[in-house]
Amino acid sequence: MSASTRMSSRLAGWLPRLVVAPSLLVVIVTVYLFILWTGVISVTSSKFVPTYDFVGLEQYVRLWATPRWHTAVANLFIFSALFLALSTGLGLLMAILLDQNIRAEGALRAIYLYPMALSFIVTGTAWKWIMNPGLGIQKVVNDLGWTDFRFDWITNPDMAIYTVVVAGVWQSSGFAMAIFLAGLRGIDNSVIKAAQIEGASLPLIYRQIIIPMLRPAMLSVVVLLSYIAIKSFDLVLALTNGGPGTATELPSTFMFSATFRRNQMGVGAASAVMMLMTVAAIIVPYLYSELRSEKND
Amino acid sequence: MSKFIATALAATMLMPIAAKAEGQIEVLHHWVSQSEVEALNVIRKDLEAKGFQWKDSAVGGMSGANAQQALRARLTAGDPPGAMQFLGWEGVQWAEQGVVRDLNDLATAGGWRAALAPQLLPFVTSGDAFIAAPINMHRQNWVWANKKLFDDAGVAVPKSWSELIETGKKLKEKGIVPIAMGDEPWQIGIIFDALLSDINGPEFYQKTAIDLDSEALGSPEMVKVFDALREVRGLVDDNFVGRDWAVATGMVINGEAAMQFMGDWAKGEFLAKGLKPNQDFYCFATPGKVTSFQYLIDSFGMFIVKDEAVQQAQAALAETIMDPKVQKDFNLIKGSIPARSDVSVDDFDDCAKLGFKERAEAVEKGSMQGAMTHGFAAKPEFASVFSDVAAQFFVGKMSSEDAVKMLVSGIDNAR
Questions:
Q1: Which residues of chain B lie closer than 8 angstroms to A67, CB-CB?
Q2: B47, B141, B343, B362 - which has most CB atoms within 10 Å?
Q3: Could you report the per-residue pLDDT of B321-330, keeping only the tens digit for each?
Q4: Where are the domains of chain A?
């Protein structure tokens, strides 16, 4: 082997690493370094500006003694669970229905997927008006004659979080549908034909064969949607602005206002760390089990 | 040789003038609406007449929170703007970090301390240093009312909160929304601040909203404040969720609603429609035994910079802002009243004149106090507890006693 080919083969070995290095560096600095920095701030007494003293877990104690934070955490669980379940469920159902070789499938697919192209700000503002009892659905139905029809969740502190779910599901179920549809198209038709020859009914085929085969698509949907759920800051901001009162506060809105508007940088950092832990606690085991089972296959 | 010295002398004498002409100052602020920009132009023109350039750096949104974030980034990078608009405790807090220029020489020479109400000084001074030049003053506790609706219902301007609530009930029976507002915590906070002082007197406001006295916070008087707030809720329609303050003002203008509690920035909405105070609409202070004047001010602070040209521009800007004529022209456009107490009231509208009069009275009676909801009483970490509790109470079904308990524990937690 000549020196030049040895050179070029060594370069070929290094090239991928060289190309990836700048983006890796950027990610390390802008993501992981700042996660670390946030962690440091959360154990200091920082208020208006960062101060680097060590106060232990004081900010965490303070955080968990704040009623607004309890509301935020409860809302996150209600919102994420319903948002994930409904978006995934509706997305899967729509994908299966669209997969029945129907007419104008392309157009329908575009219509269902279209909300994803809107920003959460637009979705939130539109649904704010649709669900306002004096402007939207309630008024229309009342004007049609059903005068005692009530749909005023958005004004009710106990129900307002569900309006966020409605708007979120409307926006994201089409996206779940698209991924499932792609998954369905990837399934070999001969498997279904074989099952049909064996006399399996269509619902049985879906339950026992097709849906289990959509596992990789399911993984993508769940991971992407949970990340949308956690960062759904702009949806809440546009739809309810955390209201009525503080009823639809989410950890992300809490973190923002504590850090930037309430002079409680330490508390804000502590809440950010709690959010990270929560996400990690759910996603890491799931990813781990999914990736391991993939290797075993 | 002597010619050379003369030239050198002339050059050194000319230098400051040359530098002065080049002096440019960057001003970071969050005023982006049309009337705000027009008002700022008054300052800009006066500054330019002195030979300095104004470099505009507007960061709008989130009631100034975005501009604050921009400032933090700039200070961290060691590149502060020449001047910055301050709200509430912001200036004092930055001064404690040692980054704000002391304007004491100018303040002493210009007699600024004497020209301002003593209540303002905690927000524009830090120790012996004078840290910010206040341009205007808004009053938060105004009531804006539709005169025609009042006349048709045969009701007069209420003189006490119980009268106000009775008036509201009468209007409600006639199918009019008595009070227009939104559910944003700061809109609810405006009413809460007014009730604190109006129901229990300015001393109570001092003890609770400013001194955070535990005993007063948990007292039966505080329960009365929440009881009154519950009565106010009964006078607001159910569609108030997500309503912008200007939309609520529009409801009063259009005759859909009778009253709105809002700072005097709402006045511009009436005047823009060509309506006249006391002919088409009423402006009056929230009623109390002692009429309170809950103020907020906008001020401009200067950051410590090395560039001498900028330093000179800073001094010129501060003097421009404190110029009585500039204050008058600025506030005629902005709808507020001058921060200086010695500017003549001529040319201002009737609402502003009432504001001038009641400010002078309130300074004497001790009822001129900072508006908590806009950051001029307790520090933000405490003021936000008040606004959280008041907002949750207002939109939900919490009892007044529970709200008081929540307030006391919330304040203790933030200490």
A1: 388, 406, 410
A2: B141
A3: 999 999 999 9
A4: 67-250
Site from B68, B241, B393 to mutate, A interface, most A CB atoms within 10 angstroms: B241
Q: Report A:139-198 residues touching B (Cβ under 8 A).
A: 152, 154-155, 157
Whether the CB of A241 is below 8 Å from some CB of chain B: the reply is: yes
- What ipTM does the predicted assembly reach? 0.74
CB contact under 8 Å between A154 and B238, yes or no, is: no
Q: Which phi and psi (to 5°) does residue B10 adopt? A: -60, -40
Domain housing B181: 142-294+371-414
Is A125 an interface residue toward B (CB < 8 Å)?
A: no
B154-208 pLDDT, tens digit each: 999 999 999 999 999 999 999 999 999 998 889 999 999 999 999 999 999 999 9
SS3 A204: helix
Residue-wise pLDDT tens digits, A79-97: 999 999 999 999 999 999 9
Computed on alpha carbons and rounded to an integer, the radius of gyration of chain B in Å comes to: 23
CB-CB under 8 Å, A135 with B185: no
pLDDT of A139 over the 80 cut: yes
In a domain, B356, yes or no: no
Strands B129-130 and B177-179: unpaired
CB A26 within 8 A of CB A33: no
Q: What HEC string does A92-105 produce?
A: HHHHHHHCCCCCCH
DSSP string, A110-162: HHHHGGGGS-HHHHHHHHHHHH-TTTSHHHHHHHHT-TT----GGG-TTTHHH
Instruction: Determine which of B55-64, B162-171, B254-263, B266-275 has the lowest per-residue pLDDT on average.
Output: B55-64
B379 touching A, CB under 8 A? yes
More confident residue, A288 or B172: B172
B72 lies in some domain:
yes
Yes or no, beta carbons of B380 and A262 under 8 Å apart: yes
Predicted TM-score (pTM) of this structure: 0.82
Q: Is residue B406 less than 8 Å (CB to CB) from chain A?
A: yes
If one compares A294 and A104, the residue with the highest pLDDT of the two is A104
Query: Which residues in chain A (256-295) have CB-CB distances under 8 A to chain B?
Result: 257, 260-264
Chain A residue numbers touching B65 (CB-CB < 8 A)? 260-261
In sequence order, what DSSP letters do the residues of B226-267 get, joined into one string? HHHHHHHHTTB-TT-TT--HHHHHHHHHHTSEEEEEE-GGGH
Q: Could you give phi then psi for residue B154, rounded to 5 degrees?
A: 70, 35
In words, the CATH class of domain A67-250 is mainly alpha
C-beta atoms of B241 and A240 within 8 A: yes
pLDDT classification of B62: cutoffs 50, 70, 90: low
**Same domain (yes/no): B390, B269:** yes
User: From CA B212, how far away is CA B210, in angstroms rounded?
Assistant: 6
CATH number, domain of B312, equals: 3.40.190.10
